[in-house]
Specification:
CATH superfamily of the largest domain: Glycosidases
CATH class of the largest domain: Alpha Beta
CATH architecture of the largest domain: Alpha-Beta Barrel
Distance between the termini: 74 Å
Radius of gyration: 31 Å
Number of strands: 27
Length: about 650
Amino acid sequence: MPAAKRTEPPRRIRIAHPAPVVDGGRYAPKRTVGDTVDVQADIFRDGHEKLRAVVKYKAPGGRRWLEAPMTHLDPHVNGVRWGGSFTVETTGTWQFTIEAWSDVWATWHDELRRKVEANLGEDLSGELSEGVVLLTNSGSKHPAVKEALETLEDPQATPQAKYDAALGNELFEAMEAIQTRRGKTTLDKSLPLEVDRVKARFGAWYELFPRSWGGLKETEKLIPELADLGFDVLYLLPIHPIGRNKRKGRNNSLIAGPDDPGSPYAIGAEEGGHDAVHPELGTQQDVVDLCKTAHRHGMDVCFDLALNASADHPWLTEHPEWFQQRPDGTLKYAENPPKSYQDIYNFNWDTEAWESLWQAWLDIVLHWVKAGVKFYRVDNPHTKPFPFWEWLIKEVHKVDRDVVFLAEAFTKRAVMQELAKLGFTQSYTYFTWKNSRWELTEYVNELAHGEEREYFRPNFFPVTPDILHAYLVHGGPPAFVTRLVLAATLSPSYGIYSGFEHFENVPVREGSEEYLNSEKYEIRERALDGPLLPMIRRMNEIRRENPALQHLSNVRFLDAQNDALIAYAKQEPGNTVIVIANVDPHHAQEGLVVIPAQLGLPPVFTVEELFTGDHFDWRIGGNYVRLDPGGNQTHVLRVL
């Protein structure tokens, strides 16, 4: 069978290993507004022709492609890696591709230059005649082109004069500006890039139970002070009606007393379900007012999106097809042994009525988006279908692209990665369980410098209402200080639960991660008066004052010659911050912290301790540090 006819010859240029790319373009890397996107690829062809390349990019809804030049990153070692960049200025899904072509003029120019410089006595009239053709065919009216043609076609001109004319810089620039893109090649398909608002990357979260603060109106009164403390997101535990059937009592007791409020995660009662507000907390209008007040102070409100139902949820009677019954007619309650949630029922994601179930959840989210809620911490997303989340997040973003989804998925690494790839804006992490120097170094390096850096945005919470680590139980206030500084300086996004600033660290029993008298099962009287709050305020100020702390992939761990000391540097142009923390909450630790020459700092430089205001002279090489739980448990140093 004869080969198919071609309208043009096969492409000879290859573009391989483009970056950034996630799973071959199946998912989009993540960036935030204002970021410079660095694009790279291997670009090469057979032969010795010179190549040119550009990165082409298009904004969401854009009609035309813009382009930025790419340069050869390692030409001196015959490498094939090229790089270019562009800036993203709006949220949404951007597209980019790479275009490369053979540079005929540069190839001819380089060949002639090398022959002239070799001075082998050759007759180069043939090469010059090729140049005349290229100049003539260009059709350019540029003065440099006209002058070069006159010289090259002048029989009286000397060979050297012709060489000088052909190899002139002005002529080269003029020809490069009008060249035809010969053998033009692009990627087989454009690549996506998901761009979020800056708060999707950088922010401080404060988590609370509204019922412990007097309800939504009283919570709204906290916002000015929370904003003054430097928080960007107010994260509310569920505010919906709570089921009465099988309600939990204090400390997760199976029998509730008459005054026990129950767990906010047992959502649904005769007052309504996920689209309702618990009447003791307030009204729908209170949510609207809360969000407006938050926005006026530069903050956002986050809801806890818990996709489960109490035994009294209206959907149990309205849509029994959404739930899975056992053969004996009972429903399976939620559990994650040894944790059991007898007051909560899961949905049946394999139901034949899955489309109506999906749509119901989309309607719930859009209901609260309309009320002004732009952040959602999603409870256990790893127990729901991946396709559901990919669909729901895209549908919500069609309505409001500023909505942020945080995945609370303490599960297998691959599952956490998949959730981040398919659309979750941020993710909880293993940080809570990484407390030694080497655990932290290994894990943060993976997040900051591995493949996850393109799509997995961590949010470091030292504790949650469910997780109280033994490090804090036995470490006391010094451990809280260390974890605060590590969370806030390692990760651009971090958060605290309202018991953290009070050093709450008593477990329900030894070895348990549950709190004694957990706020999940009882109402506490809370106030913004914890002894750690002044340090938290200053920590948030430091984060805002130092761009280096607003990014993750710029972290570089330093050699601290004591395993109880963890040290790292973060750098952005004009801003270097060095952090040292004592991970031993019981004893003073000392040692040398080594500053490598690769940081580009002067041989001797001055640092300012940003909590105390003290100044120290540091140098390339070893610097003595002593950190004491009774005094300074950490150093956050800015290079002056």
